[in-house]
Each structure stands twice: as C-alpha cells, then as structure tokens.
C-alpha cells in the first residue's frame, strides 16, 4: 500500500441513474435554499451562537430529534423504492445492484441514524429534567456526542451520490463485505460512518450513566426515579458494554480491507464467522438499546393518561435489568443456521425465549396501570395503546423464531423481516412518536395539533399493518429477504402488492405527521403551559420551554411521581422560602462541532483510502482535544440572581398570573 | 520546610475537591469499563486466532524472552513512578510531581521505542499484519495498547505543561489523577498481554 497513492474510485460523482440524478438535484437545491434563507434573514450568527455551539441538553436533544426525523424520511424513501420494485413480479424499476444498496442503507439508516438518535434526543430533553438536574454530567462531551453522530450520519448519507453506497446489508456479513468480493469504497462508508457515530454513542452512554447516578436531586433515590430515567440508565449500561465490541469489529474489518489483515478472510487463517459473532454481540444488545427507552416512554405516557401511578414499579425495574442481562446472552439466535451444532443452538434458544418473561411482565404492568384508570385518548396515549397489540404480534413471532429447529424454516424469509419490523416500528417508532408528542409542549411551549395528529396516527397504523401482516404470510409462503424481484405464479404477487399499497399508506401517515407539526408551528396557540398533560414527574414542574438552567431552585423529592404528590397535597416541591443563589452553567463552545468536522474529514479520507487526508483529519481531532485540555479552566459562567428573578416573573406572566410552581415568591 | 510551604492552599485529596472533579473521575472509571470491554474483545480475537499461522511464523519463532521481559519491567516501573507522582500531587509537591511524572514519560517512551523496534524486527523476518490471522490479531492487539500508551504520553506531557504554568490546583490535580488512572489501566492490560500473548505463545 502506497501511503500517498490517492487513487480515484471508478465513479467519484455518481451520475446517470435518474433516481440518483434527482437526488443530486434536490440535495443541491435544498442546500442552496438553506444557505439563501440563512443569509437573507441574517441567521448565520444565530445558528452558530444558539445551536452549533450549544451545550444545553435540551437544544442538543432537539437537534438529535430533527436529524432523526430527516433520517426517518430518508430511510422511508428507501423503503418506498424497494416496495415499488417488489409490487409486482419481474419489475425493472431498480436493478439488482441498486436494490442491494437501498436495502443496506435503509436498514443502517433506520437503526443507527434514526432510532438511536431519536431516543437519545428524547433522553437529552427529558432525563435531566426528570431527575432535577441542571444539565448532564459532561455538557461539552454531550455536544461532542451529537456532532459525532451528525458527522457519521452525514458521511454515510453521502455514499449514494459520492463514490457509491454500501451494498452488503446492514449486517455487512463477510466474506461478502470483504475486499475480495466487494472491492470499492461502499463498505468503507459503512465502516467509517458507524465508527464515528458509534464513538459518539459510547460517550452518550457514559454521560447519562454518570448523570443519572450522580446528579439526582436530593431525595430522589433510585427507586423513586421515573421509569424513563430508569430505562435510560439501563440503556446506558448496555451502551457502555456493547459499543466497544462494535468499535473493534468495525476496526478489524477496516484493517482487513485497508491493510490486508486476515481476520475474516478464509485464506490466511481468518474466520468469516468471527464477524457474525462480533457483530451480533453488539447487535443484539443494540436491539435493546432501541427498545428499552421506548418502554420507558410508554410507562410515562400510560401512567400519565390513565391518571394512575405505574403498576408494579419494582417489577418494571427488575424486568428492565433482567432484559439487559439477557440481551448479552442471545446473540447466536441471529445465525442458528450457520452450523453451531444442537447444543449451542439449544442454549441460545432457551435464553432467547427467556426474554419473553420480563417483557411479558412489563406488558401486564402496562395493562394493569390502565385498569380502572381514567384514560384520556391523547395522541401520545394513542401511540402507546397501539404499541401493545402490535408489539405483542412482533414478540410472539419472535418466540416462534427463537425455536432453533423452526428457525431453519423461517430464517432469511419475509417472516423474519415482518417480525423485526413489528418490534422496531410497533415498539421503537411508536415509542419515539409517543415521546415526541408527549414532550413537545415541554420543548416548545405548545402542543401539536391533536386533530391532524390523530389522522396521522390512524393512517400510519393502518398502513403499517397493511404492509406487515401480508409480509408474514408471504414469508411463510417461502419468499426470501433481499431478492430484488421474483417470478410470477409463486403465490406472492397479491400479498406483495398489498404490502406496497400499505407502505404508501404509511408514507401518507408520515406526511400527515409532518403536516401536523408544520401546522402547529404556524398556528398553535403558544400557551407556555408548564404542565399541559397534568403530569406526574419533575419536568412538568418548570416552565415550558424550561430556562437554560432548568431549575432555579433544586427540588426536594419525597416519593415517586413527585409532582403528582405535590399537586394532590397542594404543596410545592421547591423550597420557595430559601433565597435564590447564582447558578454555575457551562459556557458555549465551538470545539465539538469543529472536532466533528475533522472526524468527517478523517472518515472521508479513509473511506477513499486517501491516507494523508485521513491522517490530517485525525491530527485535527487531536489538536482540538489538546486545545480543549489547555483552555477548559474557565468553561463555566454564573447566572445572576436577577436573571432568575426576571425569568420567574416572565413565567408568572405567561401562566396568566397562576402560580408557576417553584419560581415564585423569591425571599 | 520549603516543600511544606508549597502545600499551603491545597486540601487533602485535591482531585476530589470540586463537584466537577468528582463527576469526571467517576465518569473516567466508567470509560475504563468500556475500555475493558474493548480490550477483552481484542484478547478474545487473539486467543481465537493464536494458532492460525497459515504457514507463517509462529509465536515461538518470533517472541524473545529478553525483549518482552524488558518491555514488561519498563512499563511496570512506569506504573510505580506514576503512583509516586500521584502521592506527590496529594502532598502538594509540584517538583516531585514533575520529576516522577517526567520519569514515567521517559519510561513510557522507552517502552514505545522497544515495541516499535520489536515490530520492525518481526516485519523484517517476514511477519507482517497480512501474513496470517495470528499476526493480524497480534499486531492489532499490541498496537491498540501501544497507541493508547502513545496518546498517554502526549496527554501527560500536556498536563505537565499545565502544572508548570498553573501549579497544583484542584483542577490540575484532578487532571493528573485521571491521567494516572489511565496509565495504570494500560499497565494492567499489559499484564494480560504478557500472560496471554507472550507466555502462552512460548509454551504452546
């Protein structure tokens, strides 16, 4: 390998396919549009000061969520393209190569760049508020996490227009993904996009673990924490123990491809199965990283809108912990058919089925929480209610798949595809949307229009079932995943056609959702209500949107659902008699965004195997870290008491003179 | 007495004095837990591949007791000197910190020189990362450790500049303490390298 050989790939700028040409044109137009608007309204300064340099967990959360919604759109378009191609037999809308690229990017984008950032965004918005903290433990690191995710996502999403997409599936199995069978740079995009954003995710895990363990308000013992905070804590533990394995797996494959190492090649003594094992030792815990926070959201929403405290709180906690432990013991069920032998398959069948037990406990707890509750059918509650039956369909078919002998029939068929879409959409996506609706008024001070949202909900859920129920059936009829077309006369045509129609109905649901958001941004009344849902937890005790320091006074917690208890007793959870004190808050900093920029350069260089560019990027990253080390001595500022007092007055004004709990009556 | 005078404003356990310091130390322990997982994965990979030599040189052909013993002793000594530097930091003795930490850096540098020399020698004998799965796993495990040590050298040098400029404060003490945790951790990893790679390689 010549260090300075900057060879060009076959096609640096991908051009020719009408779909990709269209994407190019829209990318350029959208970019120009954004630049134009920012320049015309003189918003560059605002963008830099308020967003790009922010270390405020609430703003970082909002940036995560906006990015995740964009990725949901991108992954959704991929899905529509695949469904158009498969609507009828022998179509030639996409060729085989293009189809391979699209199912690869669909899966990767949806898991890594949509589901995780969406949930991490909601954690950022809600968790510090729920525990009565003024920020996360390491605010600058939190910004670095976001910008690394952003750099990784940007890199990965460029692949289809610059240099070519990865095309070995989101699981990127070798030997297919090795240098020999897939030369070129597509797979490198996968490796570096995931590597960069994965480092950010690891940092998020550490950050939230420390935040939740060390920064809870006085009186908030572990067993008084809201369930979303609990699920975030356990998710953070899983991240800390799972993500380093992904880091290693990606690095080893990078060395195979870049330096000619022999980890996964048959020649040289490597083992392709090593990839499958490493990938799924990360990959299965990853499944729980994206479902446990959703479970937490459902717990909050169901308890709030059933007006009852969560049934079986400690059983819920024990279940999450049990699931997190089991999540590391089931990875082999992803490759029962790859020759593990009956003993190993049996063990992993049993551990897999065991996960159904704590999950079942949770389902019953949600049902009992609603039992005899006064249920209010708001949009977040609708998503939570829809979650239960849909997730059970996904869960029960999961237990079917867990049976190793039966899996020899189901595996790699559309039955499996439908199973994981039922748990990932019915669980994770419904959870993200429930959380988005639930915390939206906290983020922005107004609710999303309920009428349009309910339309969006019904259209989406009907489309979802219309897509995936036929998919189970066509899977049982033997249709394998990852084929770009099929013959007539196999009995698959009708079902496939219904799936495609269903996907478009889901797409319409997404459009309605976006419309509901846009409509509400333009028309919804800004009532800035601190507690619009009659909530139970601390985030509803402060202004909407909260001041940047969250809590003018640190709350005192005497039990679960602290706000609910205080409302019942007519008390306040803030000690209003004690005088306000100045608050230490972290300064804004541009280092995270700049550092992620260097990571992007490094990633781009290594993707194209332009080593000098890659090393220059790494050098930039190191310089940023050194700069930070030398200059972090004065990275905090004080919020003066006068500002706290003004904010309190403002909140009382917004609340129409009503007592805005906790910030009034400055002594 | 001069040494005692320097101590005036520094409390006991200066690294734990600020809320921020306590959070960062705890956070770094969590980071080290993630590092344990990272190195465990690399060790597991190495153990899977250690006999997959594909006709190339084996561990027995390559490893020399004198070399890896010297590397081990140098690195273990550096952990000791690093510990002494932490003690001096707690006593508020800036000079002692600079001396022992400086010595730690020199030992770390010596270790890196030896390790790179070892790699160059192996490559000269035709044992490259592309020779066999065994060597791929060997080089990646050892280089991951080596890159960590090199970053540690860079990091500690940067901290010593800050200590010279700002003296021992709760903040510089916290930074030194965390870098110390990192340095000791790398030593622990090396003990596993010594056992799982070198000793096992010689007897198998």
Automatic annotation (TrEMBL), chain A:
Any GO BP: electron transport coupled proton transport
Membrane topology: Multi-pass membrane protein
GO molecular function, one term: cytochrome-c oxidase activity
Assigned keywords, A-Z: Cell membrane, Copper, Electron transport, Heme, Hydrogen ion transport, Ion transport, Iron, Membrane, Metal-binding, Oxidoreductase, Respiratory chain, Translocase, Transmembrane, Transmembrane helix, Transport
Cellular component per GO, a single term: plasma membrane
Membrane-spanning intervals of the chain: 20-39, 60-82, 102-129, 141-162, 189-213, 233-255, 275-298, 310-331, 343-368, 380-402, 422-440, 452-474, 494-518
PANTHER family to which the protein is assigned, alphabetical: CYTOCHROME BO(3) UBIQUINOL OXIDASE SUBUNIT 1, CYTOCHROME C OXIDASE SUBUNIT 1
SUPFAM superfamilies recorded: Cytochrome c oxidase subunit I-like (SSF81442)
Catalytic reactions on record: 2 a quinol + O2 = 2 a quinone + 2 H2O; 4 Fe(II)-[cytochrome c] + O2 + 8 H(+)(in) = 4 Fe(III)-[cytochrome c] + 2 H2O + 4 H(+)(out)
Enzyme Commission number, as recorded: 7.1.1.9
Domain Cytochrome oxidase subunit I profile: 42-558
Primary localization class, coarse: membrane
Species for this entry: Melghirimyces thermohalophilus
Protein's pathway: Energy metabolism; oxidative phosphorylation
Cross-referenced CDD domains: Ubiquinol_Oxidase_I
Protein name in UniProt: Cytochrome c oxidase subunit 1
From TrEMBL, chain B:
Pfam families: COX3
Keyword ATP-binding appears in the UniProt entry: no
Biological process (GO), any one: ATP synthesis coupled electron transport
Catalysed reactions, as listed in the record: 2 a quinol + O2 = 2 a quinone + 2 H2O
One cellular-component annotation, GO: plasma membrane
Transmembrane segment boundaries: 26-48, 68-85, 97-117, 137-164, 176-199
Gene3D superfamilies in the record: Cytochrome c oxidase, subunit III, four-helix bundle
Record membrane topology: Multi-pass membrane protein
Subcellular localization, as worded in the UniProt entry: Cell membrane
Domain of life: Bacteria
Keywords per UniProt: Cell membrane, Membrane, Oxidoreductase, Transmembrane, Transmembrane helix
Enzyme Commission designation: 1.10.3.-
Heme-copper oxidase subunit III family profile domain span: 26-202
InterPro entries, per database record: Cyt_c/ubiquinol_Oxase_su3, Cyt_c_oxidase-like_su3, Cyt_c_oxidase_su3-like_sf, Cyt_c_oxidase_su3_a-hlx, QoxC, Ubiquinol_oxase_su3_dom
GO function term, MF aspect, one: cytochrome-c oxidase activity
Record-stated family: Belongs to the cytochrome c oxidase subunit 3 family.
Function: Catalyzes quinol oxidation with the concomitant reduction of oxygen to water.
PANTHER family assigned to the protein according to its UniProt record, in alphabetical order: CYTOCHROME BO(3) UBIQUINOL OXIDASE SUBUNIT 3, CYTOCHROME C OXIDASE SUBUNIT III
UniProt-recorded name of the protein: Quinol oxidase subunit 3
Lineage start: Bacteria, Bacillati, Bacillota, Bacilli, Bacillales
């Amino acid at each position: 390998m010549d260090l300075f050989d900057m060879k060009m790939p076959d096609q640096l700028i991908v051009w020719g396919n009408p779909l990709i040409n269209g994407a190019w044109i829209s990318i350029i137009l959208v970019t120009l549009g954004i630049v134009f608007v920012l320049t015309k309204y003189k918003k560059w300064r605002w963008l830099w000061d308020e967003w790009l340099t922010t270390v405020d967990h609430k703003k970082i959360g909002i940036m995560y969520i906006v990015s995740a919604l964009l990725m949901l759109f991108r992954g959704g378009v991929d899905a529509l393209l695949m469904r158009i191609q498969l609507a009828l037999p022998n179509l030639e809308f996409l060729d085989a190569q293009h189809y391979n690229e699209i199912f690869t990017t669909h899966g990767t984008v949806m898991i890594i760049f949509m589901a995780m950032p969406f949930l991490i965004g909601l954690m950022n918005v809600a968790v510090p508020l729920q525990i009565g903290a003024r920020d996360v433990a390491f605010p600058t690191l939190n910004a670095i996490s976001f910008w690394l995710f952003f750099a990784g996502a940007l890199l990965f999403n460029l692949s289809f227009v610059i240099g070519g997409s990865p095309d070995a599936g989101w699981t990127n199995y070798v030997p297919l993904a090795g240098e020999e069978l897939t030369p070129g740079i597509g797979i490198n995009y996968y490796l570096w996009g995931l590597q960069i954003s994965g480092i950010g995710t690891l940092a998020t895990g550490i950050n939230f673990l420390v935040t939740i363990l060390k920064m809870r308000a006085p009186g908030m013992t572990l067993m008084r924490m809201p369930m979303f905070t609990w699920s975030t804590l356990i998710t953070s533990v899983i991240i800390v123990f799972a993500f380093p394995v992904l880091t290693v797996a990606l690095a080893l494959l990078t060395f195979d491809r870049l330096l000619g190492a022999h980890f996964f090649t048959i020649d040289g003594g490597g083992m392709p199965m090593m990839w499958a094992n490493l990938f799924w030792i990360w990959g299965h815990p990853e499944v729980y990283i994206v479902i446990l926070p959703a479970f937490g959201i459902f717990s909050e929403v169901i308890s709030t809108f059933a007006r009852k405290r969560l049934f079986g709180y400690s059983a819920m906690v024990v279940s999450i912990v049990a699931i997190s432990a089991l999540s590391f013991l089931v990875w082999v069920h992803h490759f029962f058919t790859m020759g593990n032998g009956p003993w190993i398959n049996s063990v992993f069948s049993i551990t897999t089925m065991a996960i159904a037990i704590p999950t079942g406990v949770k389902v019953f707890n949600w049902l009992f929480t609603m039992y005899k509750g006064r249920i209010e059918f708001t949009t977040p509650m609708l998503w939570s209610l829809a979650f239960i039956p849909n997730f059970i369909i996904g869960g029960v078919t999961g237990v079917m798949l867990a049976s190793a002998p039966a899996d020899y029939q189901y595996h790699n068929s559309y039955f499996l595809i439908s199973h994981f879409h039922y748990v990932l959409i019915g669980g994770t996506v419904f959870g993200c949307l429930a959380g988005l609706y639930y915390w939206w008024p906290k983020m922005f001070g107004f609710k999303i229009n309920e009428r349009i949202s309910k339309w969006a909900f019904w259209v989406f859920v009907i489309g979802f079932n219309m897509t995936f129920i036929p998919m189970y059936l066509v899977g049982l009829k033997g249709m394998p995943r990852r084929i770009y077309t099929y013959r007539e006369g196999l009995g698959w045509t009708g079902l496939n056609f219904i799936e495609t129609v269903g996907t478009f109905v889901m797409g319409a649901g997404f459009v309605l959702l976006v419309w509901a958001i846009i409509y509400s941004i333009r028309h919804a009344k800004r009532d800035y209500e601190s507690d619009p849902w009659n909530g139970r937890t601390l985030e509803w005790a402060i202004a909407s949107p909260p001041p940047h320091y969250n809590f003018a006074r640190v709350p005192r917690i005497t039990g679960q659902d602290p706000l609910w208890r205080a409302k019942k007793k007519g008390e306040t959870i803030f000690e209003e008699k004690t005088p306000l004190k100045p608050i230490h808050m972290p300064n804004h900093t541009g280092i995270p965004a700049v550092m992620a920029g260097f990571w992007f350069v490094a990633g781009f260089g290594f993707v194209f195997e332009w080593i000098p560019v890659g090393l220059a990027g790494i050098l930039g990253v190191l310089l940023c870290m050194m700069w930070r080390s030398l200059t972090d001595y004065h990275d905090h500022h004080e919020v003066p008491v006068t500002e706290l007092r003004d904010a309190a007055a403002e909140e009382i004004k917004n609340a129409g003179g009503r007592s805005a709990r906790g910030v009034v009556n400055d002594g | 007495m001069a040494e005692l005078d320097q101590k005036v404003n520094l409390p006991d356990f200066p690294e734990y004095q600020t809320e921020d310091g306590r959070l960062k130390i705890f956070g770094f322990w969590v980071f080290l837990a993630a590092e344990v997982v990272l190195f465990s994965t690399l060790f597991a990979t190495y153990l899977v591949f250690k006999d997959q030599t594909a006709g190339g040189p084996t561990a027995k052909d390559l490893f020399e007791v004198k070399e890896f013993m010297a590397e081990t002793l140098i690195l273990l000594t550096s952990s000791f000197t690093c510990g002494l530097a932490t003690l001096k930091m707690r006593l508020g003795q800036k000079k002692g910190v600079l001396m022992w930490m400086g010595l730690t850096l020199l030992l770390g540098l010596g270790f890196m020189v030896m390790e790179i020399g070892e790699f160059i020698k192996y490559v000269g004998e035709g044992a490259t990362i592309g020779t066999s799965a065994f060597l791929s796993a060997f080089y990646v495990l050892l280089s991951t450790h080596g890159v960590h040590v090199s970053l540690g050298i860079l990091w500690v040098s940067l901290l010593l500049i800050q200590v010279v400029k700002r003296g021992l404060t709760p903040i510089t003490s916290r930074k030194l303490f965390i870098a110390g945790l990192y340095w000791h951790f790398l030593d622990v990893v090396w003990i596993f390298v010594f056992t799982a790679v070198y000793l096992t390689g010689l007897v198998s």
